[in-house]
Design brief:
- The protein is an alpha+beta fold and 544 residues long.
- The chain has three domains: 2-66 and 89-107, no CATH class; 110-399, Metallo-dependent phosphatases (Purple Acid Phosphatase, chain A, domain 2, 4-Layer Sandwich); 408-536, Immunoglobulin-like (Sandwich).
- The chain contains eleven helices and 35 strands.
- Strands 1, 2, 5, 7, 11 and 12 form a six-stranded mixed beta sheet that branches.
- α9 crosses α10 (424-432).
Length: 544
């Protein structure tokens, strides 16, 4: 009898221990005082649903130090600083034996919430350098224009990483807290979901086994989870962190606040894959588009062969692709390389990757040097607009000043060749950087043009004096970037060489005109049947 009692007491104690463990993170999600059921809640490892009363219970190891929910369809969160969604809460105690409560409040959206506009901005790189805070006003003005264009539709935004610039957190006193303060003082007008980039890690943490986790600590404290999900309308969005920050000490002298080389590996951790599998299992409608937002591209487009291959180490791209095979339509949206390209992995026809050129363009430098805000691939500094209507999405690339009304820039290569032949800058540039293209050698009456957001299903027509001429796609430098950035930089500094110049562009085209003086018109029709037309009169100057 005594043994039986002892066993019963042990069983009761074990049950009590299990209950405590099962309830170390609990809470309730409500809207107007009523519980919201079937909301996905996670700590970055475990994934659970709220019950009919909106209550959830998590057994958490508290590894990440937060709990978050995936915004459900038809609801909106409260906001921090007026624009950052409060979909997460920092844990109060790192001890997994200590229970804590985290409640969240939502509000209902209007019935038209399935129709909205999402703006993707990549590589903002605010650092209080290159007159960036002033130039950022151009982006804010573009957002005001977007609000007018959206009409009754709700507007949202996502920054695709490298929002800040780790090299200048200390020297410019402009880290993540200062960034958020600046956006708040600038009255940033839209809900802002954020992706972590390599330049958003803390460079003051030395290399070691936990470097990646520790260097993302400031992000998790200020911005929130480095991977999470949410729902807007019928679309499920997943934000992933595809950077393992190493910060290896490779010798040499580092700036104050930096203790390593700030290097990294492009990959997805096992913890993210395990969480993602659980998160995607909660998505019932696999026919609706799945949007995956990352910083570093998952798929790389070879610039000469225009072939697509995985860009993550350890087969991360293929592993991710297998995980989303059941989804009919998957869009990966990335940044990092400051260019526009679209990749279609051959083995995974349900996946399209959209790499978006940078908000900061060439790190805000070309705008500061020449007044021309231009990316390395010749695309204007800008962002991508996605119009969502139920399960249908339409996207277009937009510049700050012209929106998506201009998609082409045309070059009269006669004038480019003339400038390369007569201006001593270009001779010096080619002597200093022999891998650069010598445009003085192009055939007479060549015309080149850049279609910024070109995809393989776009249609192009080229007219010379109103008559069609043939064209071909080439991988080449954009001449305007050279004069707007490299030339302007030389005028200021008197020297050549820069990592931001000389980039081959995936979306350049070449045509051979018959005359030197007939106007050239390029008409493009995008994936959704929208038509854009641009004409130049020849001779057309090659100048800023």
């Amino acid at each position: 009898m005594r043994l039986r009692n002892i066993l019963l007491l042990c069983l009761v104690g074990l049950c009590c221990f299990m209950v405590v463990q099962a309830q170390n993170i609990t809470g309730r999600i409500t809207a107007n005082g009523k519980g919201v059921r079937n909301v996905v809640v996670s700590d970055g490892d475990e994934v659970v649903l709220t019950n009919a009363e909106g209550r959830y219970e998590l057994q958490s190891q508290k590894r990440n130090g937060y709990v978050f929910y995936s915004l459900p369809r038809g609801y909106q969160p409260t906001y921090k600083n007026g624009f950052l969604p409060r979909f997460w809460s920092a844990l109060k105690n790192a001890d997994a034996n200590v229970s804590e409560v985290h409640d969240f409040e939502l509000s209902r959206q209007r019935s038209s919430s399935d129709c909205y506009v999402m703006l993707f901005g990549a590589d903002v790189h605010l650092a209080r350098k290159n007159n960036d805070l002033k130039q950022f006003e151009g982006f804010l003005a573009a957002l005001e224009r977007e609000q007018t264009l959206a009409g009754k539709r709700t507007l949202h935004s996502i920054f695709l990483g490298d929002i800040s610039w780790d090299a200048y957190w200390t020297s410019q006193k402009f880290g993540l807290p200062q960034l958020v303060d600046f956006l708040q003082q600038s009255n940033y007008p839209l809900p802002l979901w954020t992706v972590m980039g390599n330049h958003d890690h803390d460079p003051s943490i030395p290399e070691g086994r936990e470097t990646d986790f520790l260097t993302s600590g400031e992000w998790r404290k200020v911005m929130g989870p480095n991977y999470y999900s949410f729902n807007l309308g019928r679309l499920h969005y997943v934000v992933l962190d595809d950077i393992v920050y190493l910060n290896e000490d490779k010798g040499g002298k580092y700036k104050k606040g930096i203790v390593g080389s700030r290097n990294y590996t492009a990959t997805l951790t096992d913890e993210q894959f395990k969480w993602l599998e659980k998160d995607l299992a909660m998505v019932k409608d696999k026919s609706a588009p799945l949007i995956i937002a990352v910083h570093i591209p998952v798929w790389r487009l070879n610039e000469t062969e225009l072939t697509v291959k995985g860009a993550l180490t350890d087969g991360g791209a293929e592993r991710l692709a297998e995980l989303v095979r059941d989804f009919k339509e998957v869009h990966i949206v990335s940044g990092h390389v400051h260019v526009n390209y679209t990749a279609h992995p051959t083995d995974y026809p349900n996946i399209t990757e959209h790499n978006i050129a940078a908000v900061c363009a060439t790190w805000w430098r070309s705008g500061n040097l020449s007044g021309e805000h231009i990316n390395k691939d010749g695309s204007p500094g800008g962002y991508s607009r996605w119009e969502v209507d139920g399960k249908r999405v339409k996207f277009s690339y937009c510049s700050f000043d012209k929106g998506d009304t201009e998609q082409v820039r045309i070059y009269d290569m006669n004038k480019v060749a003339e400038r390369y032949s007569t201006d001593s800058f270009f001779k010096g540039l080619l002597d200093s950087e022999p891998n650069r293209t010598d445009f003085s050698k192009v055939p007479a009456n060549t015309v080149m043009f850049n279609v910024y957001a070109y995809d393989k299903d776009w249609k192009i027509e080229v007219l010379e004096g109103g008559k069609p001429i043939s064209y071909e796609r080439v991988t080449e430098e954009d001449p305007f970037h050279t004069i707007a950035f490299s030339y302007a930089k030389f005028q200021r500094d008197g020297k050549f060489g820069d990592s931001g110049s000389g980039r081959k562009t995936y979306h350049m085209f070449k045509a051979q005109a018959k005359t030197a003086d007939q106007p050239i018109t390029v008409s493009v029709t995008d994936s959704f049947g929208r038509k854009y037309k641009h004409t130049i009169q020849r001779p057309h100057p090659y100048e800023i």
